[in-house]
Request: fold
Amino acid sequence: MPQLILDTVIKAPLSVVFDLARSIDLHMYSTKKTGEKAIGGVTTGLIEAGQQVRWRARHLGVMQTLTVRITAMEKPYFFEDQMIQGVFHSMDHQHIFEELEEGSILMRDVFNFKAPLGILGRLAEWIFLKRYMLRFLEERNRVIKEVAESGNYADYVSC
Reply:
């Protein structure tokens, strides 16, 4: 099962970074290239432990839906979402937040996924899926960092 680990350092308050990472509205803004829309469950605001969201987006040229549930949360240091329905065989995403000495936040993504279709899925993971998912997460984190550091996050969180 592929695992992607992505570290992003952000100069902003911990509560802001944590809330931006779980903001449905910021997620849609950060994934506008794939047209990602929340179509069920929590469709706006901040998602909480036990809640779920159903997403619709175009990935790799195909319209897909994915439903994830927030399975764990320790505010403002950690939350995890897991796919409960979607194209992957399995998927979980841990979001870890750590205060650094210099007043910055380390936001770490630990993303595990497994493609369907057995050996064909493993081949797809190796050839393109891992790289595609890493770029997807990098773009999302770039937007979180940009919004958090700009101070213009009121549209996405209520701090």
Notes: The chain has one domain: 3-150.
